[in-house]
Amino acid sequence: MDNALTIAALGALAQGTRLDTFRLLVRHEPDGLPAGEIARLFDVPQNTMSSHLAILTRAGLVMSMRQSRSIIYRARLDGIRDMMLFLLKDCCHRNAELCAALIAELAPSG
């Protein structure tokens, strides 16, 4: 990940419908959702949702695959992981103890 890709990803997520769409797709991993269903859930015209999904795809945050007559969209978890790692890589001058609270918050509770 580099500055340009990170800026594209953050820019893609800096719009309400796209952020909600990405979060919805994360919740539906690994199966994903058809584009029409996503548009219906957000009450957005299909051509508008298509534009949002294209922006998320170019930013490396979602991917699509054709399944019969539908296009299924899935979150690219590796894309968001790479962005988060890029943003946090130099966190606190690489002092892991200072990032412990963040790591703990992300870790699944057992």
Rg over alpha carbons: 16 Å
Note the gap between the termini: 31 Å
CATH class assignment: Mainly Alpha
Tally of structural domains: 1
Helical region count? 6
Which blocks of ≥5 consecutive residues have pLDDT under 50? Answer: none
What's the number of extended β-strand segments?
Answer: 3
Q: Sketch the topology as an H/E string, one letter per element.
A: HHEHHEEHH
The CATH architecture would be: Orthogonal Bundle
Shape: elongated
Short description:
The protein is an alpha+beta fold and 110 residues long. It has six helices and three strands.
Report on the architecture of this protein.
It is a single chain. The chain has 110 residues and is α+β, with helices and mostly antiparallel strands. Helix content is 56%, strand content 13%. The chain is built from six helices and three strands. It is elongated, with a radius of gyration of 16 Å. The mean pLDDT is 90.
Write the layout of secondary structure elements.
Layout: H1 3-13, H2 16-27, E1 33-34, H3 35-41, H4 46-58, E2 62-67, E3 70-75, H5 77-88, H6 100-106
Antiparallel strand pairs: 1-3, 2-3
Helix pairs in contact: 1-4, 2-4, 3-4
Write a concise keyword list for the protein shown above:
three-stranded antiparallel sheet; elongated; 13% strand; alpha+beta; 3 strands; Arc Repressor Mutant, subunit A
